[in-house]
Design brief:
Order of helices and strands: HHHHHEEEHEHEH
Strand content: 5-15%
Number of helices: 8
Number of strands: 5
Radius of gyration: 19 Å
Strand order of the largest sheet: 3-2-1-4-5
Structural class: alpha+beta
Largest sheet: 5 strands, mixed
Length: about 260
């Protein structure tokens, strides 16, 4: 059974992962530490990137229904992130507070501009709240990796994040440019998903739901692992040939998925 997290859950998880991110940055030896999973970035670059993105998201949510995101001046004062660590951490905390304040004021159902208009996810402030959790969680992993002590994503975060990845980032009405295929994902925590790829686009379903369980098709390719490892694979933090993943079927489908950019 799929357990859907609520808007309040996502706000809670944004704060929890943001606190973990801050703690990881605070524990690093210095801000010039390179981040292996984000080539050419230092720890400072990563904090600036993530904080700036939260400020931009806050402005998008605050703007409400729109055909385009707000102008940069709505979320960027031109000062950038401060270089001194304590000031940078305070700037990060303020970035998250801007985000959560905007989300609380909007509630879960406000219409907003999004970049996923062709997906199966709604274009709402609630969907933006959900999207924040894996972004912050994966970058927390990046910081931990940079200082040599990466931790798996918490189960609650990872299960919801992978579901979001499938329905928001993978699903699209843009035609799949290869042979039609079916891809299944199995989390060892007991949930699973199916992604169907065809000229109609990419469409996700939760296996075990009535519409999916009655589907007689077998998958052309499948991947099994913990929810955390599935998310980290999706974000390119662990490779397809990682021993943490059990991959069956036609591996070329995964390679095609990794290379595919429907926006091009």
């Amino acid at each position: 059974m799929h357990e859907t997290l609520t808007f309040s859950d996502h706000l809670r998880l944004i704060n929890e992962r943001s606190t973990a991110f801050r703690a990881a940055v605070a524990a690093a030896p210095h801000l010039d530490v390179p981040v292996p999973s984000c080539p050419e970035w230092t720890l400072f670059d990563l904090v600036q990137h993530l904080g700036t993105g939260r400020r931009r998201t806050a402005a998008i949510v605050a703007a409400g229904p729109a055909d385009a995101p707000p102008e940069k001046s709505a979320w960027d004062d031109g000062a950038g992130a401060p270089r001194e660590r304590e000031a940078l951490l305070a700037w990060w905390t303020e970035s998250v507070e801007r985000l959560t304040s905007a989300l609380r004021e909007a509630g879960p159902d406000r219409g907003c501009w999004t970049f996923w208009g062709d997906s199966q996810s709604p274009e709402t402030s609630g969907a933006w709240a959900r999207r924040q959790v894996p972004e912050i969680a994966v970058h927390t992993y990046d910081v931990q990796l940079a200082v040599g002590d990466p931790e798996p994503l918490p189960d609650e975060v990872a299960l919801d994040a992978f579901d979001d990845c499938q329905f928001t980032l993978c699903s699209t009405d843009v035609a799949w440019p290869h042979e039609p295929a079916v891809v299944d994902y199995y989390a060892t925590e007991g949930r699973s998903w199916r992604l169907r790829l065809s000229r109609d686009g990419a469409w996700a379903a939760r296996l075990g739901a009535p519409a999916a369980s009655d589907d007689p098709d077998t998958a052309d390719a499948s991947a099994r692992g913990t929810a955390s490892d599935l998310v980290l694979f999706f974000y390119g933090r662990i490779p397809l040939d990682s021993p943490k993943l059990e991959v069956d079927g036609d591996r070329r489908v995964f390679e095609q998925l990794i290379a595919w950019d429907p926006s091009v």
